Backbone:
């Protein structure tokens, strides 16, 4: 292995000194060679995933200023990274699905012809790693041995990306051992270039199982196993192979009787998956425990027992820092207390990290995410709103004992949720699977800092997959409908909204640990043992079905959070129109009809209550 990292070689650029490859796999060697001939790095480093290698790469990143060593007494094994200020979130406008035809990508994706994309990015990649190191990062998505696990290899010029991949995936020899001589691996080529936003492209070639990403070093743009492979390519493969790749967290909910029910939930980016997956039940729910299986991505397949079985393909958490504290998410706080990479948070004088909404007093002075002096009087935020922590899954004190189970866990309930200050009730249960697909397909949410662009505007984000579905979204809904026929005991489907506000602008629902109250109803309903009332939107809990003891929430607030506001629903249904029109060519008829059905019901309601 390369001991050359801290003592650069003086080899001429044109003949990169190839580090000893860790595999005899001919296709992998040929592809790495091809990438090296294109990008012309000074040296090639094969990542083996050992602790020794992690220590060496970390030390190298510190000497290069890529990482800042934090206070090792307070935060052992933790480092801070500051990304370029123009490179702080996913960029949807630079993200392309490059299928043979435009129709395959669908109106939900930016499309580029594969030839054009390879040519365009190829030109940018030519010689792009000269003077730099090329890291070859083999990784597995999913517990090794799982029938759903997939292998990828990411080639990158970023040591930060290599280190993050080491936390987020099962990385190194384990992947090469699984791959052996097979040519079936995802080919990911990543180069940060000069971070010029004009030369930033994230291109997916589902038909070649290939991803090329240039011009960004951040999160979902650069950690290619995550959104690129696990969701965009994953969703494509899932449709072909009969499984599902979803933007969902997975949790095990243990009751006082010792029964564990597995729930998967899709909320758009920065809308609460990590928090929900790490929920600690309130005092009143003694004997209940939530165990985290995953916090962002879920792969599901029908099992031989007729249930839907899910794995978390990831091995770590790339979580939102702002708003995280010992009251909102103590589990996350404990998870990121060691061996964690922090990105774009504030740095205190004693080498600790800080962000808006962290516990304790606001530091009197610190260095902000851009490396500038900051005080509480500063107008700008200390941490970027999309600042994040990368922490190993094994740090989680409530990691599910089944998180590494190759079979996965059987899912009893699927939850869709958005960030909506109005209109959408706290919780609704779908009447049936197709109605659940309709609830997911019409999901809307206010945009967040997880992607560049305007924050706080409602947009349609079906199944929280709008930025991540690697093919036509109408066909994706069709795939959801088709899946029902392979699952004899399908999960029950629900919709939630933790973010509804009252007329005074405050949240009607306390959220966080109190979401357990909604979760208990969901779990009970999934087992067919809790009451409910029928509305035109779906089944909702009656006051008596809902345990509010010790919550401090008033019944008036809960009623308001559940209220069906007819004029708001009229606007909501009108707002869905543009999405349905855009996707008319492939939108399943059942989904179109369910919307028409709801429109008709709402019209009749309004006639009965003209004052509303
Ligand atoms: P991605 O990693 O971007 O996919 O996001 P995520 O869905 O995992 O979101 P996360 O759990 O990190 O939450 C994002 C933000 O929402 C954080 O600032 C949280 O504090 C806030 N949040 C999470 N749950 C709740 C809740 O129940 N109520 C309220 N009001 N805010 C919440
Ligand atoms: C999201 O945006 O949904 C994330 C963060 O989970 S990123 O890895 O940047 O996609
Ligand atoms: Mn996400």
Residues:
């Amino acid at each position: 292995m390369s001991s050359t990292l801290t003592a650069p070689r003086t080899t001429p650029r044109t003949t990169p000194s190839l580090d000893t490859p860790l595999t005899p796999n001919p296709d992998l060697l040929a592809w790495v060679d091809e990438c090296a001939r294109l990008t012309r790095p000074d040296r090639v480093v094969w990542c083996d995933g050992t602790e020794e290698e992690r220590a060496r790469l970390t030390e190298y990143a510190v000497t290069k200023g890529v990482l800042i060593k934090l206070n090792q007494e307070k935060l052992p094994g933790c480092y801070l990274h500051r990304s370029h200020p123009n490179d702080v979130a996913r960029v949807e406008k630079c993200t392309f699905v490059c299928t043979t035809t435009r129709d395959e990508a669908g109106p939900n994706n930016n499309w580029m012809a594969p030839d054009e994309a390879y040519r365009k990015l190829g030109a940018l990649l030519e010689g792009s790693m000269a003077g730099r190191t090329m890291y070859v990062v083999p990784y597995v998505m999913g517990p090794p041995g799982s029938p759903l696990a997939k292998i990828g290899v990411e080639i990158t010029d970023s040591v930060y990306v290599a280190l993050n991949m080491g936390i987020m995936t099962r990385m190194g020899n384990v992947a090469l051992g699984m791959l052996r001589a097979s040519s079936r691996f995802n080919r990911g080529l990543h180069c940060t270039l000069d971070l010029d936003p004009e030369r930033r492209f994230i291109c997916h070639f589902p038909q070649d199982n290939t991803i090329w990403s240039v011009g960004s070093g951040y999160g979902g743009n650069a950690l290619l196993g995550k959104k690129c492979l696990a969701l965009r390519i994953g969703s494509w493969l899932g449709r072909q192979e009969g499984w599902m790749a979803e933007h969902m967290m997975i949790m095990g909910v243990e009751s006082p009787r010792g029964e564990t029910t597995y729930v998967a939930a899709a909320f758009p980016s920065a809308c609460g998956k990590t928090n929900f997956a790490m929920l600690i039940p309130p005092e009143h729910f003694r004997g209940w425990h939530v165990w985290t299986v995953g916090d962002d991505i879920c792969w599901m397949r029908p099992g031989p027992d007729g249930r839907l079985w899910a794995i978390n393909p990831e091995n770590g958490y790339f979580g939102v820092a702002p708003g995280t504290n010992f009251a909102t998410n103590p589990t996350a706080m404990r998870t990121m207390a060691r061996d964690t990479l922090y990105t774009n948070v504030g740095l205190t004088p004693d080498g600790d990290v800080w962000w808006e909404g962290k516990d304790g007093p606001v530091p009197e002075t610190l260095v902000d995410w851009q490396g500038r002096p900051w005080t509480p009087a500063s107008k700008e935020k200390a941490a970027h709103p999309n600042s994040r922590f990368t922490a190993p899954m094994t740090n989680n004190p409530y990691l599910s004992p089944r998180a590494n189970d190759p079979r996965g866990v059987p899912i009893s309930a699927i939850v869709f949720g958005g960030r909506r200050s109005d209109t959408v009730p706290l919780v609704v249960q779908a009447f049936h699977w197709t109605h659940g697909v309709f609830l997911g397909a019409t999901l809307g949410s206010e945009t967040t800092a997880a992607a560049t662009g305007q924050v706080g505007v409602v947009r349609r984000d079906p199944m929280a997959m709008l930025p991540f579905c690697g093919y036509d979204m109408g066909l994706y809904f069709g795939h959801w409908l088709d899946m029902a026929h392979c699952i004899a005991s399908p999960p029950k489907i629900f919709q939630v909204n933790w973010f509804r506000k009252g007329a005074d602008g405050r949240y009607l629902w306390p959220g966080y640990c109190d979401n357990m109250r909604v979760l208990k109803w969901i779990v009970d309903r999934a087992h067919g043992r809790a009451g409910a009332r029928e509305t035109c939107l779906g089944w909702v809990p009656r006051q008596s079905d809902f345990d509010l003891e010790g919550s401090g929430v008033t019944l008036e607030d809960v009623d308001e959070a559940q209220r069906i506001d007819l004029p708001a629903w009229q606007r909501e249904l009108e707002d869905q129109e543009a999405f349905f029109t855009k996707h008319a060519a492939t939108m399943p008829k059942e989904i179109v009809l369910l919307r028409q059905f709801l429109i008709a019901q709402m019209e009749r309601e309004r006639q009965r209550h003209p004052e509303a």
